[in-house]
Each structure stands twice: as structure tokens, then as C-alpha cells.
Design brief:
alpha/beta; Rossmann fold; 2 domains; seven-stranded parallel sheet; transferase
Length: 213
């Protein structure tokens, strides 16, 4: 019957995806100590205010040839972060970067219920961006904008188990001294490296590296 046919198709898709996600995870574990020789397509998530300032400082210290091309993702209308990224890239005469604005996942003082819908819409906008840019490294440090990007990147990675797995690195903001941010608590389960800058935040799931800035 048609119902049985579609049921088997659905199970086959789920099985294929499960195998792909497992293979991707195993490759990440096996290659965790392997030094990369080619450049990495890098997606950098910028938030407003201090989040962007911290992330720009991190990117400034990175080799622009090794982490290339770069795609900066920020909330639509965040002109300050956009200008900061352009200024930093122009200082080193870089041309291999782009800046993309997406819908903000959660605005200041927005209710939790309505933020669910705005996050879903932001995820929808991120999908074609991730599929076309195909990041090999995702860097973020706390803004809600990075939630749909990291979740999509994590789950889409299982669709292409034959490709180099994507690395997701979350750097908790320096201002988080005693507790993780809400974004950090959500993404703890999905990132490959979770960096904290204060010893009180060190756990089996995080890596304490001391002050970065």
C-alpha cells in the first residue's frame, strides 16, 4: 500500500541520516589531532555591542589566508557590527570576505514565546546561506543569532558524511563569569569546542583557556 511505501521511504531517509551523522561524528573524533593543511571556509557570527568587539579581536589574530574565505553573519540592521568587520578587513586589504544579514533570533525584551517564531524564521533564512557557503569552521561567542546557524550546521553535517566534517567553536563572552549564557547552555550539546575564560565555568563539556582579550 502507499502508506507502507512512504513509511519505508521515511525509515530509509532516517537511517541514512543517522548513519551520516554517526560517520561525521567518528571522523571528527579520529581527526581531532590532525593539522589542517588547506584553508578553511570560515563563518563568523557577530552580535551587537560587546559580542562583536570580542569576535573582531579574535578574527584579527587569525591568519587571513588559512581561514578563507570568510562569511560574517549578523542581525539585519546591525550596521555597527557590519562596519567594524569591514574596517578590520580593509586594514589588511582583504577581499575574500562577505557580510550577510539575517533576521534577529530574539530582540531585546522580546518574550520567550514570540522568540520561538522569530528563531524559526531566522533558521529558514540561514538554510540557503549555509548550503551555498558550505562552512568548514563556524565561530561564535554568544549572540542569539548563532543558535540557528550552529543547529543547522550540526544537523546538515550528517547529510554529507563523505565531506570534511564542519567544526563549530563557541567562545563564551568574557563577561560571563559565574554562569553560561542562555545561548551557551543551548549549544553546549552541539559544538565541537566550547571555550570559557573563567575557571568557575570549567566543566567536562567546556575548555578553560584563561583570558583571551
Amino acid at each position: 500500500s502507499k502508506i507502507m511505501f512512504f513509511a519505508w521511504v521515511f525509515l530509509a531517509i532516517v537511517a541514512f541520516y543517522g548513519v551520516g551523522l554517526t560517520l561525521s561524528y567518528q571522523r571528527k573524533r579520529n581527526n581531532s589531532m590532525t593539522k589542517r593543511t588547506s584553508s578553511a571556509r570560515t563563518m563568523i557570527v557577530l552580535g551587537s555591542g560587546g559580542h562583536s568587539t570580542e569576535m573582531i579581536e579574535i578574527v584579527e589574530k587569525m591568519d587571513p589566508l588559512r581561514y578563507s574565505p570568510r562569511c560574517y553573519v549578523l542581525a539585519r540592521g546591525d550596521t555597527r557590527s557590519s562596519e567594524a568587520a569591514k574596517e578590520m578587513e580593509n586594514k589588511r586589504s582583504a577581499t575574500n570576505f562577505r557580510i550577510v544579514g539575517i533576521k534577529r533570533s530574539r530582540s531585546l525584551h522580546q518574550s520567550f514565546i514570540t522568540s520561538i517564531f522569530s528563531t524559526i524564521w531566522a533558521t529558514y533564512e540561514c538554510l540557503p546561506l549555509i548550503l551555498t557557503f558550505r562552512p568548514e569552521l563556524v565561530l561564535c561567542n554568544g549572540p542569539g543569532t548563532c543558535v540557528p546557524i550552529c543547529l543547522l550546521t550540526f544537523f546538515l553535517d550528517g547529510l554529507w558524511p563523505w565531506r570534511e566534517p564542519v567544526r563549530i567553536v563557541f567562545i563564551e563572552s568574557f563577561c560571563r563569569v559565574k554562569s553560561l549564557s542562555l545561548t551557551g547552555k543551548i549549544l553546549t550539546w552541539f559544538v565541537d569546542l566550547f571555550v570559557v575564560q573563567w575557571p568557575g565555568l570549567a566543566t567536562p563539556k567546556t575548555k578553560y583557556v584563561g583570558r583571551i582579550f
